[in-house]
Structures are given as structure tokens and as C-alpha cells.
Amino acid sequence: MFQLTPQMRILVASEPVDGRMGIDRLAGYCRQHLEEDPMSGCVFVFRTRRATTVKLLVFDGRGYWLAQKRLSQGKFRLWPEGTTASHPLEPHQVQLLLAAGNPQVASGPIWRSVTPQREVPKEKPRTPEAWPLDLQSARPAR
Questions:
Q1: Which 3 state secondary structure label does DSSP give 66?
Q2: Is residue 72 part of a domain?
Q3: Of 8, 22, 74, 86, whose CB has the highest number of CB atoms within 10 Å?
Q4: Per the domain annotation, does 34 fall within a domain?
Q5: How many Å apart are CA 24 and CA 30, to the nearest integer?
Q6: Where in the sequence is the domain holding 71, given as residue range(s)?
Q7: Residues β-bridged to residue 96
Q8: Could you tell me the pTM of the whole model?
């Protein structure tokens, strides 16, 4: 498992790729089309042609990681476009992109609880009579 950190360089490919591409072909795509070294530690993000799957490729110094997310419904509609082969993104933008959201928002998301806040009742202090019995004295004699 890998984590997206603020120190990471993240590049999103503008053009969709073939969904059958594995590690070797995606690494070759990075070299040929994006003109980037896939072993640089940069996180590369790709979208398939059907726009239902996103793949992340990263080299951690010992080997490649390939992560894939496929939507069960809908598509990744909001994707960075432009004249360049790739676009740099911040980690919070990639998180929005992976949630099928708009990565071009100005700032990171404001997280909130999905359940309503309720007050947790405070526990009453226990009296000595309510304390559990001593386990040594509760054992039967042998």
C-alpha cells in the first residue's frame, strides 16, 4: 500500500490509455508519451478509454506499484485536459479525482462527519461495591 503525501510529484496523463495495459506497458507509455522517467518516484495517474477505471503507477525504489480503481456505476467525467501530455496535481486533487470529483477546485475538501453528532453519555463513577471481584478469591479450591 502507498500513501499520497504532499512531497510526492503526481502527474495525470491527459490522454486515455488501453485498460489492458500493465506495469511494463504503462512504464513504456511514461517514457514515450509523457517523456518522464517511470522510476523517478513520481506517481502517474491514467484513465482508461471507457473512463470507468483509473490506474496509478509508482516506483518505490525496489519495484513498481500498480493500483486500479474501477467504478461500479458512472464514469470519471472530470479529467484534466490540455495541450500537454500530462498535468501535475496536488494530493488532495488526486483524492478528488479518485472519488470521481472535480480536481480543479481551488483548495482541499472540508471534511465533515457523515453521521450526525450526538452527545455521548458520561459514565458514572463506580463505587467500591460495584468493583469486580478479585480473581484469586473467586477461584474454586483444588
A1: strand
A2: yes
A3: 86
A4: yes
A5: 10
A6: 10-98
A7: none
A8: 0.70
